[in-house]
Every structure is written in structure tokens, then in C-alpha cells.
Amino acid sequence: MNILVCVKQVPDTTEIKIDPETNTLIRAGVPSIVNPFDTYALEVAARLKDSIGGSKVTVMAMGPEQAKAALKECLSVGADQAYLVSGREFGGSDTLATSYVLSCAVKAVEEKSGENFDIIFCGKQAIDGDTGQVGPELAEHLGYPQITYASDVTFENDTIKVKRENDEGYDYLTCPLPCVITIVKTPYEPRYATIKSKMAANRAVIPTLSAEDLKIDTTMCGLKGSPTKVKKTFTPVREKHGIKIEDKEAADAAKELVDMLSDAKIL
Amino acid sequence: MAFEEYKNLWVVIETEEGKAKNVGFELLTPGRQLADQQGEKLVAVVIGKDIEAEAKKAIAHGADQAIVVEGYEYFNYNTDAFSYALEQLIKKYKPSTVLIGATNNGRDMGPRVACRIKTGLTADCTGLGIDEESGNIAWTRPAFGGNLMATILCPNTRPQMGTVRPGVFKKSIPDESRQGEIIHEDIHIPAEDIKVKLMERMKEVAEAVNLEEAEIIVSGGRGLGKPENFSYIRDLAAALGGAVGASRAAVDAGWIPHAHQVGQTGKTVAPKIYIACGISGAIQHLAGMSGSDTIIAINKDPDAPIFEVADYGIVGNLFDVIPALVEEIKKRKQG
Q: Which CATH number applies to B206-334?
């Protein structure tokens, strides 16, 4: 099985703080990480590789040169090779433009290697943009079927079986290959790197694919190629002056709360 | 692109097994306002099986018109069939705006369709308005795990599309006397183009996990200490007729399945009452529940960030407070 995992390098949003003076995000010093959902996607891919002989896992990221650090991390935990898709032309791309660039990169890598990907994995969403749109839009650009919000993927009797979360439980789905699958948090944790795998990943040469390499229509990427435009950004106001019951016995506190709730016609 | 050809505001009413989800009706509320401001019709698009009654409900909740697409292939959600139907409708009727509920299925279909017709889609919006300068829809949404809000426009392509978070807007009180036209469209994707097949459907029957539709949610976190202590949460949920939620810490510890998780990596909920027990209130958790009408926090740490978003809070030991609450609620019910 020839597997591709699309990953994104993102700021660790759990480390982001708001500057109380300017009310803006403090991004300086926030570590860059592999988008957590992409690490789950990579683990699903690596498990498939382990279970099917002769399989290979490729990772691909779109971003600046620094994103190679994220790709190296992937190489240390199950990926066999990596590509960076990078160029000024891609800056400011929204989900439609990003997925277009990635679809061109998929075709370029397939052409170069002479092998087509059977499954393309993405995380369900990146934790910075939180859109979850690049996976399905990539599938549409490629004309492949898609399964989103999957928590597990197995391969038996030449058929993939995908466990997908729905609002009330989950579905088991199947589809023909090639396809695009987006991954939620898996019931298992991604594997750890070993010293040996880290050293090997550090030595790896990661080719960069430019707009020219992709023979891309540059009017369809970057800000120009993005139908959505950010009008403004602001930090959310979180100012609630709630009522806090403190230093009371549990029974008294409970009674006071239920009284207030029924007075306010909430209960 | 000839913008004047594109008119009317659409709300896609998501259905499953012939029943509409709440979020579709919720979106008719801001949809009505925006359509009135723009001088457009509000149109409900209902794709499903045996959904005539749901189309009528959409009219009662404020739609001027409903477009109904009916067929066996729409009994359960399927990316290929639903995307095809919506694409065909958009191409025929040319709406100016399309609102879709930001459920898993809505966020599966939205990008598929937006990409096919090469237009902009704004994900998981929590605010809708009109940009005064340009007259475009102003889509407001959280990013960076709720740390930042962004307002997005789609100025150069039509329709403007967005998925909108469930629970943010309230359903209007239905007016059964409202009249509206129901249009039937016969759209069927060629069978061989349905690529994704449903093999088996598993409902979580053990307890109500349909958090997105629940009116009351009681959630437990790290403060519970061990999996057995979720019984406290279940007791309170049962007393209130609510569903059980959990923080990421409790799910990661393996105390409760992921289906119960509220927050950035779990479900986004906005019930009438959200009770957070033993949850400190990390920003990722707040991102998933801060839209609730009334937030109640029970935590022994008076400085826990959860109290910053709570309308009511009890500082105390949850193992004492919850049983006292359960008793108090039961007493009132009898009285």
C-alpha cells in the first residue's frame, strides 16, 4: 500500500497567551509542532504499513522552510520519505487554494515516482485554523472519494474498513481506492521516536517542491487564488461576572444554587 | 461572475433517517434576519427520505420556501449523493448565500461542494452579519483553539458559503400558520457514483451521548480522580434529564469514551445548561462549551479558569456538592 499523509506545522495553540495590554495573540516563543491530528493520521498510516507488506508512507507539508522540522519529526515516527511544498506563490492561501496546491503536489510526486498513492490521510483539522476543509477539498480536486472524522482504518480482503464518528455513535464505511481519509483522535497514542530513528530522520534529505516543479496555475493559489478574505481578527471578550458560592457547606451551597436557578427560570 | 444572477439565502436542513437535526432549524433564525436585510427570500433545502414534514417545519420556523430532494439514497448521509444533489441545486437556482450546520456531515459535504463550484467556504462560524462596506456576508469564527476570532468575507465568488456551529442560534417558535411554497426536485446521482458505502451503523446505546442535541449537559473532568467516579456525573445528569460530557483529561485517562468529549478535539456544544464538574477550564475545553446559555461550575479551586466563564459557580468538593445537588433537585421535583 502506497500511503501519503499530509501534515501541517502549527503553533502549539495550548501555549498561546493573550497580551492583556494590546489584546492580541503573543506568538513569539510559541513552539511549532506537528498538528496533533496529523500525528494521529500518521500513526494510522504507520499501522497500516506495519500490517501490509511492501507498504510505504510518504509525508508532505506545505509551508516555509522551517516546516522541514515537522517533516523530520514524522520521519522519526513511521514515515519513509518526505516532501516540502514551498514558495512565495503559496503564501496566504485559504483552504480552496491550499487544497489545490496539495492536489498538484500529489500529482507531481506520483509522476516523479511512477507510483500512485492508494490512500491519502489528513488530520481532521489543523489546530490553528480549525477549518477541517483541506482534506475534503483535496479529495474533490483529485476526484477521489472521501471519508472524514475516521478514528480507525483497517485493510482486510483487499477492502478498507473505516470507522467514522457521527453525531450519535459511529459508522463502518468502505470505499474504493484511491481515497482521502481524515483522522480524529485515535484510541491509541502515536508511537515515540527512538534515538536511532531520530538520527536517521535528521540526516534525511527532504526535497522541496516549488510552484515551478508543480507546473501550477499560480492564479489559483496564494491570496489571489483564495475566494475567502480575512476582513479582521480580534480576541474574544471573556467577561462574565458570574455568581460564585464559596465557603458554604455542600447542602447549603446546593440549595442556594438551585434557588437561584429556579428564580432565574433556568431550572 | 454575474452577481445579480445570484439571489436568496439558503439554509441546508440536515436530515438523517428522515428526521431533521436541530441545527438546520436554528440557522433559519439568523437566515431570516440576513435575508430580510438583503431583501432576499429565505429558502430551506431539505435532502433526505420521507422529509415532507420536516420541510413544513422549516416553513413554520421562518423559511419562505423549501426545496425538497427525496430518495432512498438520502436515508443515511452519504458524501457523494448529498454533495451531488446540493451542487445540482446550486447550479440551477444560484443562491447568493448557503448556510450549512457545522456537524460532522455538514463539514464533510460543505467543502466538497464549495470546491466543486470553486467558491469560498467559511468553517464553523459562530457569528453572522453583513459587511456594511461591501454588502457581503460577514462570517465570524473562532481560530487558534478559541484564542482568536476572525471575520471572513467571500467578495468575488457566489454563492458565499459557510458552516455554522450548532447551538449558537436559537430556533424560533414555530408558526404553523406560515405559508410557504414547497418545491420538489428529482435528483438522483448515478448509482455507480456512490463510492462510499455504509457497512454497519453503531449507535452508542449505553447512555445518551448525543451532546449536540442535549439541552442539559453535565461534564466531568480530572477532578473526578478515577473512572468509577463518573457515577457522580451520571447521577446528576439523570436527575436533570441531561447528557454526560467529559473533558479531554478524563477521556485521555481512559475514564470515558471519546464520544463524550467536549472541547476543541471533541464536540462543540451549546446546551441550555452546562455543568462542569472538576474541570479546570483549559481554553480548549472552553472553545467547546462557552456558547452554552447558562454555565455552572463546580470546582474546589476558586481560581480555576472555568469560573471566568461560569454564570454560577460553587467552590467546593464535588463529591459533597454533587450528591447535595441531586438531593435538592429531587426534593424540588417531588415538591
A: 3.40.50.1220
